Structure of HTH-type transcriptional regulator CdhR:
Amino acid sequence: MRTERKPHPVAGACDRDVTSIDVKVLSKLFDSAPDAAFFVKDADGRYVAVNESLVKRHGFRSKSDVIGKQPRDICQGEFGQVPSKQDEKVLRTGRPLIEHLEMQWDRPLNPVWCLTTKLPIHDSDGNVVGLIGFSRDVRVSIPTEEIPTAFAIALEEFERTLDAAVTPAWLAQRSRLTTQKLARFTRRIFDLTPTQLIAKIRIAAASRLLRSTNKPIVEIALACGFCDHSAFTRAFRRATGVTPSVFRKQR
């Protein structure tokens, strides 16, 4: 008995349509990656394929609860607007988003740091007709005892003081590493560049203060090593998708 394969609304690489079976295979493949949220979206930014991890992170039970919707439909507030706006930019410009460090939310409101990659999908005429990508969790990938003592001490000092003077060069010097070796090391351990790691630590500390205290935002900004309120707001929004004041209201 011959089974007809219907073309999927998203067109794929290699000058051919992505069929429903292709999407199912990709989705099934990423079902075995619980530390990554995988997705394929059409030209309007609607999900046409997702993995189980993405479904669970948003508090749903089935992939059918997500298919056909946009991120803003399954995540309330500004946190749902951020990925939708990212999608619109990739679809409009055809430029990929590569390893963008951002804070996302795992139900119930557990902050998770992710590296997000989104690639445009083109049809045979070169038109952008969809996108494919994933957000993978940032985690320590080697045992802590393998981390050099000097690096651990330097990182602990930074996390404790959040000194505004801390830069990749500072971290390299305190860790007794060259900047090149530090970059390879942080990539190996955290899958982040030194700059990304420093920004992550500052934003994570600020988010904790915003959620657990009523301190003025400018005070939190200075305490976490930002030069002023404006610089803090830009960095915080870049990482989380919302301003510090909106983040505090949504806590």
